[in-house]
């Protein structure tokens, strides 16, 4: 995988630190609830929070959009819901990657229906060219091309999440 590195560990670290500084400024005195989408977002969240200079809370959600396939079905299932109420809270959704936007759009609808004080989205990676639905993304780490990426939380069939960098999958998966 090392020959296909798109974003190095050093580049990720630098950018995550910048995003954390921005978020710390924007949420000064707000103690936001960071909602992480499992499993892909967990490495990003873990690095991000350690660079924040404000107090935050964290909660986790798991959804499935692809199953074993690599193409979006447009169908999203909640596998694990939040433990806490978000009513009146400043919620920041932390995502690994926004592709078509279908998953995010569905998640935002669910969260907004629960009356948070505010809802913003932070994604490490943005495949903006693939967007099919309009979704607001407030913080973006990197804009990436339309190739299948793995590493730093992103998997292909549950593998490669542990890689410290982001790489293009060697053999592009067939659309299923
Ligand atoms: P969307 O609903 O925006 O099309 O899909 C978002 C989800 O698709 C992400 O949370 C992620 O699970 C998956 N995804 C989209 N592009 C990639 C990619 O390049 N690599 C991996 N590993 N997952 C991706």
Describe the structure in your own words:
- This protein is of the alpha/beta class and about 180 residues long.
- The protein has one domain: 3-Layer(aba) Sandwich (Rossmann fold).
- Helix content is about 20%, strand content about 30%.
- It has three helices and nine strands; from the N terminus they run βαβαβββαββββ.
- The chain has helices at about 10-25, 40-50, 100-110; strands spanning about 5, 35-40, 55-65, 75-80, 90-100, 120-125, 140-145, 150, 165-170.
- The strands form two sheets. It has a six-stranded mixed β-sheet with strand order 4-3-2-5-6-7, with helices on both faces.
- α1 (about 10-25) crosses α2.
- The protein binds guanosine-5'-monophosphate.
- Guanosine-5'-monophosphate (5GP) binds near residues 97 and 100.
**N-to-C terminal Cα separation, in Å?**
23 Å
Shape: globular
Q: Major sheet: size, sense and barrel closure?
A: 6 strands, mixed
Q: What is the CATH topology assignment? A: Rossmann fold
Radius of gyration: 16 Å
Number of helices: 3
How much helix is in the residues?
10-25%
Hetero groups: guanosine-5'-monophosphate
CATH class, named Alpha Beta
Relevant terms:
single chain, 176 residues, alpha/beta, Rossmann fold, three-stranded antiparallel beta sheet, 21% helix, binds guanosine-5'-monophosphate
What is the strand and helix layout of this fold?
Layout: E1 5-7, H1 9-26, E2 33-38, H2 42-49, E3 57-64, E4 77-80, E5 90-98, H3 102-112, E6 118-126, E7 139-143, E8 149-150, E9 166-168
Please outline what is shown here.
Helices cover 21% and strands 28% of the residues. The protein has a single domain (2-168), classed as Rossmann fold (3-Layer(aba) Sandwich).
